[in-house]
Amino acid sequence: KTLFVGSRDKVSAFNAANGKALWSGPVPGRALGLAVANGALLVSTDTGAIVSFGQASDQPSAWILY
């Protein structure tokens, strides 16, 4: 299982069992809402952007959606 954490200008993924950092990726502004759907992590930010992180084990690709 994976734990996702949003903060200012980035979102990070951690192994929920041992706390090991898996990856982090940039987001524009402060991450507010995080949701997982169909294998993608969706992150809304305080700038109004929605960022979609695709599936990858080490560093997923990110797409900014508005």
Helix content: under 10%
Largest sheet: 5 strands, antiparallel
CATH topology: the name is Thrombin, subunit H
Radius of gyration: 11 Å
Tell me the domain tally: 1
The total count of helices amounts to 0
- The order of strands across the largest sheet is 1-2-3-4-5
Beta-strand content = over 45%
Task: Determine the mean pLDDT.
Answer: 89
Could you tell me the number of beta strands? 5
Sheet/helix structural class: mainly beta
| Beginning-to-end CA distance, first to last residue | 28 Å
In terms of per-residue confidence, which ranges show pLDDT below 50 for 5 or more consecutive residues?
none
Keywords:
66 residues; mainly beta; Thrombin, subunit H; five-stranded antiparallel beta sheet; 0% helix; globular
Folded structure, characterized:
The protein is mainly beta and 66 residues long. It has a single domain (2-65), classed as Beta Barrel (Thrombin, subunit H), CATH 2.40.10. Helix content is 0%, strand content 68%. The chain has strands spanning 2-15, 21-37, 40-45, 50-53, 62-65. Strands 1-2-3-4-5 form a five-stranded antiparallel sheet, with no helix packed on it. It is globular and about 35 Å long. The termini are far apart.
